[in-house]
Design goal:
- The protein is mostly helical.
- The protein has one domain.
- Helix content is about 75%, strand content about 5%.
- The protein has 15 helices and six strands.
- The strands form three sheets. The protein has a two-stranded antiparallel ribbon with strand order 1-2.
- Strand 3 and strand 4 form a beta hairpin.
- The radius of gyration is 23 Å and the shape is globular.
- The relative contact order is 0.13.
Length: about 450
């Protein structure tokens, strides 16, 4: 197995894309906080809102910079590691990847300098529109990336040419793939969860240290409110609709996510259990009767197919990891709703800033949305296996044949070292900004 080049290509790409997405999820989650605070500053004239936008724009800029550095290698990996995939599908997916660079990335990068350094030169109104431009570019980038991924999950709008490669048959069908709308809503709400937890965590940190009281209150109020709303939206309707799309278009994935080997009506939803692939059963399960049928297809009587109803060579190739990724993600999402719901209740009663255990919980919780987002993408990508483009093109056919496992391992070690250095530098710079505080003028 470890001599399989495709395995090492997958490991390398998984590492680089997982590391990269730590940064865009925060920029997408912070973007509309910046717009809101700039709008409040413009409307009320209160300096506290401009100060909040100024402080978080620096954090945004650091995330954006490292996101760019870690994102560029992935573009090259389509050629170096996945040349078979690029040859087969480049005529389709290459278009939206180019659109992301030309339209979204350049829009965001053009305005981010103005946002961070141009406040005095631009004035309040133009500076507000710079924040809008950054937020629009950030989310538009997500649109094009998710259009590309949605095609890989649910291919539409394509035709197969005489040489066996793909081309557009209907560009609008490709861009308006129904999978896109559900995935985009779910992904962006999850990014808002990350942004709100980070904002609230910094507010809790300052409150516990009895520093920057006005700014800390602002961060706590905005972070907990948006965190609760976004966490609820991640679960319903966006998560619910995502599950229904998986059930409709990827029934094998749904069965693997739930460790369901036998089909049937009134399918139970597994809360806890351990999938045993060798024995084809879910061991020690705690299940909710009929709930999976209802969530996936809308009625308790709906039939949910099991893995045994499909050819084994079409099963996801790591059912255990897929199952645990999905269930840990769901567990974390439920905790997020509970934590932010309790925080909002305390805030409404005027007790949040006085409740030290809750402040500690908010401050220490900020890494968990990163984990949940990573697990969500692992669920989506592991669930699609063994296909690069679902039902059309297998992962094993997409890997570059001329690149040996040794070459991939060598470069992977290099990426690990480089990204470690980048991570340490990033944490130092962000930590320095947080310790300086929002009143610090650089």
């Amino acid at each position: 197995m470890f001599n399989d080049p495709a395995l090492w290509h997958r490991i390398q790409f998984a590492f680089t894309i997982t590391y990269h997405y730590l940064f865009p999820q925060l920029t997408m989650g912070l973007a509309w906080f910046l717009v809101y605070w700039k709008w409040k500053a413009l409307r009320t004239g209160e300096e506290k809102y401009a100060q909040a936008a100024r402080f978080w724009a620096k954090i945004f800029g650091l995330n954006f910079a490292v996101g760019v550095v870690t994102g560029i290698p992935m573009e090259f990996q389509f050629g170096t590691n996945w040349s078979g995939f690029s040859k087969y599908a480049g005529g389709v997916i290459g278009q939206t990847l180019a659109m992301e660079g030309m339209f979204a990335f350049f829009l965001e990068s053009a305005f981010i300098g103005a946002l961070i350094w141009g406040e005095k030169r631009l004035g309040p109104k133009l500076h507000f529109w710079a924040a809008v431009g950054v937020a629009t570019g950030s989310w538009l980038s997500g649109v094009f990336i998710l259009v590309t991924n949605s095609f890989m999950q649910h291919p539409v709008g394509y035709t197969v040419l005489a040489d066996g490669t793909l081309a557009f048959d209907n560009l609008w069908a490709y861009l308006l793939n129904p999978w896109v709308f559900v995935q985009f809503a779910h992904n962006q709400c999850a990014a808002l969860v990350t942004g709100s937890f980070v904002v609230a965590a910094v507010g809790a940190f300052y409150t516990l240290r009895k520093q920057h009281a006005e700014q800390a209150r602002l961060y706590l109020n905005a972070g907990t409110l948006v965190g609760l709303i976004a966490s609820l939206l991640v679960a319903f309707p966006t998560g619910d609709q995502q599950a229904k799309f998986v059930g409709r278009y990827q029934p094998i994935t749904l069965a693997a996510m739930e460790g369901r080997f036998q089909g049937g009506k009134l399918a139970d939803l597994a809360v806890i259990g351990q999938p045993n692939v060798a024995k084809r059963r879910l061991e020690n399960p705690i299940e909710l009767p009929g709930v999976l049928s209802f969530l996936a297809y809308g009625t308790f009587e709906s039939y949910v197919r099991g893995l045994e109803e499909f050819p084994e060579d079409e099963w996801p190739d790591n059912i255990e990891l897929l199952y645990y990724s999905f269930h840990i993600m769901i567990t974390l999402g439920t905790i997020f709703i509970g934590l932010m719901g309790l925080a909002c209740l305390l805030r409404w009663r005027g007790r949040l800033e006085k409740t030290t255990p809750m402040l500690w919980a908010i401050m220490l919780a900020f890494p968990f949305p990163y984990i949940a987002n990573t697990l969500g993408w692992m669920t989506a990508e592991l669930g699609r296996q063994p296909w690069l483009i679902y039902g059309l093109f297998r992962t094993t056919h997409g890997a570059s044949k001329m690149v040996s496992p040794g070459d991939v391992i060598f470069t992977l070690i290099g990426w690990c070292g480089l990204y470690f250095v980048l991570g340490v530098l990033f944490l130092y710079l962000v930590g320095r900004e947080i310790m300086h505080g929002p009143e610090h003028e650089s």
